[in-house]
Design brief:
Oligomer: single chain
Distance between the termini: 42 Å
Shape: globular
Number of strands: 5
Largest sheet: 5 strands, parallel
Number of helices: 6
Strand content: 15-25%
Order of helices and strands: EHHEHHEHEEH
Length: about 110
């Protein structure tokens, strides 16, 4: 079983925020017999690669970290479940995982 992850590969490797998210997601999915497949935004923005990714790769869902176009979200949503992580997707009609930024800032201060 496969779940796709759309993120900027450099951010996931370099930024501790995204590295922790990636590690947590990967560990939970592995515990449930899923493989996490890295997909770049460029792959989704290329129509041929988009069709191949959505229809031929065998992914059962897509986690959105990197911001992608609304048209890609709409197309993908018709074929597989989507979950947006972070603030890029709060105004979209998809499930999101986010945190209370205002309360977090108060805790830090």
């Amino acid at each position: 079983m496969k779940i796709g992850w759309v993120a900027n590969p450099k951010q996931a490797e370099i930024n501790p925020y995204f590295a922790n998210i990636y590690t947590g997601i990967r560990d939970v999915l592995t515990d449930h017999d899923y493989n996490l497949i890295s997909i770049t935004r460029d792959e989704l923005e290329n129509e041929t690669l988009l069709l191949k990714t959505i229809h031929d790769s065998g992914i059962e869902g897509l986690l959105l970290i990197d911001k992608i176009n609304d048209s890609i979200i709409e197309y993908t949503q018709q074929n597989i479940p989507l979950v947006g992580l972070d603030f890029f997707y709060t105004d979209k009609n998809i499930a999101i995982v986010d945190y209370d930024r205002e309360d977090s800032i108060k805790m830090v201060v």
